[in-house]
Each structure stands twice: as C-alpha cells, then as structure tokens.
Design a protein that fits this description.
The complex is a heterodimer of chains A (about 375) and B (about 120). Helix content of chain A is about 50%, strand content about 10%. Chain A has about 375 residues and is α+β, with helices and mostly antiparallel strands. In chain A, the strands form four sheets. In chain A, strands 1-2-10-7-3 form a five-stranded mixed beta sheet, with helices on both faces. Chain A has a three-stranded antiparallel beta sheet with strand order 4-12-11. In chain A, strands 5-6 form a two-stranded antiparallel ribbon. In chain A, helix 6 (about 100-115) runs antiparallel to helix 7 (about 125-140) and helix 11 (about 215-245) crosses helix 13 (about 260-270). Chain B is of the alpha+beta class. Chain B has three helices and five strands; from the N terminus they run E-E-H-E-H-H-E-E. Chain B has helices at about 35-40, 65-70, 75-80; strands spanning about 10-15, 25-30, 60-65, 95, 110. The termini of chain B are far apart. The chains are: A alpha+beta (about 375), B alpha+beta (about 120). The interface of A and B includes residues 50, 333 and 344 of A.
Chain lengths: ~375, ~120
C-alpha cells in the first residue's frame, strides 16, 4: 500500500517518485501521516490557489504551523483583510522599489567570493547563498549585521519538524519564540526612533485609517525574515545544484547571460524551495472520486504540480529555455509569493557574479544532507570544489 | 444554437495592441476576464503571475479612452496594486484580470505596456 509521509527523510531528499505515484494513482489522497488530503496535479492545485473561498488560509499555511502566527501574516489570512495588507506591503517589493538592493547584493556577492575563492573549496550554502540573501534582507529590514548568524540559525530550526512525533518539537518552537521576541524588540526600537526600513514602514502603515496591530507587524516581519533567510537562500542553492547537475545548461547560461532569467524560472519549476503548503476546506468538495469534508486540511503540493506532464511536457527534463509560464514555484493566486521580484533580482545578480568567477565547480561529497522540513526543501550544505 | 443543440458561448471581441503597435483581435467568451482572453490565446505581453487574483500587477493594460467610462469602477485593491506596475501607471491603467468581458464592451481596445515584470 502506497503511503505518502511528508515526515520521511525520502521526502526531504527526493520526493519526486512519490509525487508521480500521487499524480497518476492517487490524485486526491488522504495521508494519515500528514493528517490531510494531498493534491498533486497541476490543475487541481492551480484551481485551489484561485478558489480561496473554498481553500482557506485562515487556519495557517505551513504544513506544521507555528504557534501564534495564524491570522497575523499574509499567508495565513483570507481576503478582504489579506488584500489590503498585501497591497500595502507590496509597494516595498516591486521591481522598481527594489532597485536600490541590486548594487549592495552585487557587492556582497563579490566580497564573499573574494573570501572563499582562494581556498578552492567552499560551501555554497554557508559561504555564499545565505550570506548574500541574509545580508540583502537585513539591509531591507534594517536589522543589524552582527545578528546574521543567530537569526539564520533560529530560522533554520523553526522551519523544521520532529520526524518521530510528526509535529514541531520544543526546540523548533523555542527558536521561533526567541526570534519573535527579537523582532518585537526591533519593532519597539523603531517606535522610539523610526528608521528608513521595512519594519518602520509596517509600523507607519494604515488600512482605512487603522494602523496594523502589533502582532500583525511582528508576525509579518517574521514571515519576511523566514522567506528571505530560508526560501531565497535555499532557492539560490537549488539553482547552483541544478547548474552543477546539468553542466550543459550551465555552460549555455554562461555563454549567453540572457538565459539567466529563463533559467531561474526553470529552476523555480524544477525544484522550488516551497514544496508544500496547506489550506483548510470551508465546504465539502468532491474530487477524483473522494469526498473531502469542510474543516479538513489540504496539502497543495507545488513541487508535484510543477512536474505534472499534463501541464509541462517532459517535466523531469531541466531545460533552461523552457520558459514555463504558470509554474507554481512561487505558489499562485491571492497568496502568490510576495517576494517574486526580490527573488529574481537577488538570484540573478548573485549568480551572474558567481559564474563570472566560478564557471566550473564540482561537489566534493556523494550524498547530500537535506533540511528536515514538511514545507520546504533544500540541501543543508553544498560543498563544492572550484575546477 | 449549434446543430447538436449545444448553446454556443457568446463572445465579444477584444483588441490587444502590442507596444510595437501590432493588434490582435480575440473573441473572448463573455464573463471571462480580458486577462484570461489573452492568456488562453497566447497573447504576449500579459504575464498574470497570480492567475487573476489581483495580487501581482503583471496583467497591466492601458484601456482605450473611449471605453474607459464603460468599465466598472475599480476597487481599492486594484487601485493599490496599480501603484506596483513595472511600466508607468497612467490615468487609463487597469489590471486586465479585473475587467470582465460583456457584450457592451465588444471592440474593447487595450494597449499592452512595455514590460510587466
């Protein structure tokens, strides 16, 4: 009997064979291990992200939710409140308003490469992607540079789940609470002395004349930090891994840097960082012969929808010239990733610098270690040797 | 009515004009959005990353002035999202996912901006 267990280590390292079984044999499956329904076909997921009245986010969006988050972040709020909050924050995340980050991101990328390149071996995750992304995010949020390491460590802990108990463990919740306290402190500081940064902007924002609630500011900032530290860095690492695994694709991109943007889209399709998010049903739904009940949780398996041959022909082929329109690498619908422009800008800027200096590189280990997470997927380190 | 008795879905023509001035006439089913009409027929220049949820400002169009007052007025979210477009917002800027095609809008002309992302 086929079992879909998002807590198993195989799901962290290579979920794609299980996704195929889901799509072809159990397109609407109740997972006892996840305690929710699993949707794996592109059309079903694309429909669910549009139909927020049926597939609500109001009971959280992470597969294993963190305490006190739900209802205070964009991803765990439904319209109309969501739309107003989103439109307000989106102003800071447009391509135009992010232009000021391109040069600092480029400098940061150059500086980190200068540091590790002479060693000839390096870890792409700790030496490069996390440093560039956390640095850029901290600049945007106005957070002090000396907190990079501790903030990142806590984010990496809080996104994990305990495999034995199939829920967040005390260490994950503690990391989250400590980071909440830290962000609360940062908000308090800005109330006393406003700065030119995103946290101050959240404090000063109004919806129909009302300021955002304290918890909304704190939890929204937390989500931005989580996304910036985890998703962005992980995505960049996944792209470096794709470019390692498919050297012809890498050489093509290096020879023609115009292909960097479509290559980013293909990596988003091929192995997005956010593999699975969840919704809760607001009414009974019949799908593929199954009856899902109001109140049931549903997992939207973006990573599987992106490999659905009904939508993307030859889905397991990594093709930098595919230009996959409608991919679910950023989710979709009301909760489409807020940071799309930022992810594209920082990844393109950093990877261009990286390839300019390090066009050829190889893994120094045979087996990668993967983050233990039901929501996100990424290698914990990518030890490369410069060739 | 078709010969099989199935009711043909009513359509209305929407004209999409590229930044270079090339026009494409599409018969869009009444009730669909102007964005959907473009995506389903592969009109370049509309991205619609969020798929029609009024959340990404990548289906931005400039509506021909003669049609402007025939459109339903925009809601607060569309107005706020229009401040996030990559190409400049003008008085006739709208998000095409928020324009429902009706018979009254037949012949609607929308001009596509230089870029959406």
């Amino acid at each position: 009997m086929f079992v879909f267990d998002p807590y198993s280590p195989e799901m962290d390292s290579n979920p794609f064979p299980a996704y195929e079984t889901l799509r072809e044999q159990y397109p609407c499956m109740w997972s006892e291990q996840a305690r929710m329904w699993i949707l794996s076909r592109y059309d079903d997921i694309a429909n669910a992200v549009q139909d927020w009245q049926t597939y609500s986010s109001a009971k959280g969006n992470m597969m294993d939710e963190l305490p006190g988050r739900t209802g205070f972040t964009l991803g765990s709020t439904d319209p109309p409140r969501h739309d107003r909050l989103r439109a307000l924050i989106m102003g800071a995340f447009t391509k135009k308003s992010l232009e000021y980050l391109a040069e600092p991101a480029r400098k940061l990328a150059r500086q980190t490469i200068d540091e590790f390149a002479p060693k000839r071996t390096f870890d792409f995750v700790t030496d490069f992607s996390s440093r560039v992304t956390v640095g850029t995010l901290f600049l945007m949020m106005g957070l002090p540079d000396e907190d990079h390491t501790t903030v990142r460590r806590r984010v990496l802990l809080m996104i994990q789940s305990d495999k034995a108990t199939r829920q967040k463990g005390p260490e994950h919740i503690e990391a989250f609470q400590t980071l909440v306290d830290y962000v609360r402190g940062q908000v308090a500081k800005r109330r006393l002395a406003p700065k030119d940064d995103l946290i101050t902007k959240l404090i000063e924002s109004e919806i129909d004349g009302d300021r955002l609630a304290e918890n909304e500011i704190v939890m929204t900032s937390m989500t931005l930090i989580m996304a910036g530290v985890e998703s962005l860095s992980s995505f960049m690492s996944m792209m470096a891994l794709n470019m390692h695994d498919f050297p012809d694709a890498r050489r093509k991109v290096i020879a023609n840097p115009e292909l960097m943007a479509p290559a980013i889209e293909e990596s988003l399709r091929y192995n997005t960082s956010a593999q699975r998010f969840r919704r809760v049903l607001m009414r009974d739904v019949e799908l593929h012969g199954q009856r899902m009940r109001a109140g049931d949780f549903v997992c939207l398996c973006y990573g599987s929808g992106n490999r659905d041959p009904r939508k993307f022909p030859n889905p397991d082929v990594y093709d930098v010239e595919r230009r996959p329109q409608g991919h679910l690498g950023f989710g979709g619908g009301k909760h489409l990733c807020l940071g799309t422009a930022m992810a594209r800008l920082v990844t393109e800027t950093a990877m261009r610098e990286f390839f300019a200096r390090i066009p050829e590189y190889g893994l120094t280990i045979d087996k990668l270690n993967w983050t233990s997470s039901t929501t996100f997927r990424s290698p914990t380190s990518l030890p490369f040797a410069i060739q | 009515m078709s010969i099989f008795g199935r009711k043909e879905k009513a359509t209305a023509t929407v004209i999409y004009v590229s930044p270079a001035g090339d026009a494409r006439e599409i018969a869009v089913p009444v009730g669909d959005s102007v964005m959907e009409g473009a995506i389903k027929h592969g009109v370049n220049g509309i991205v619609a990353e969020c798929g029609g949820a009024c959340m990404c400002a990548t289906c931005h169009v400039y509506v021909d002035e003669t049609f402007l007052n025939r459109l339903d007025p925009m809601e607060a979210t569309e107005d706020e999202m229009l401040t996030c477009t990559v190409s400049p917002r003008r008085p006739n800027s709208r998000l095409s996912c928020q324009i429902r095609v009706t018979q009254e809008l037949a012949g609607l002309i929308v001009r596509l901006p230089e870029t959406q992302v």
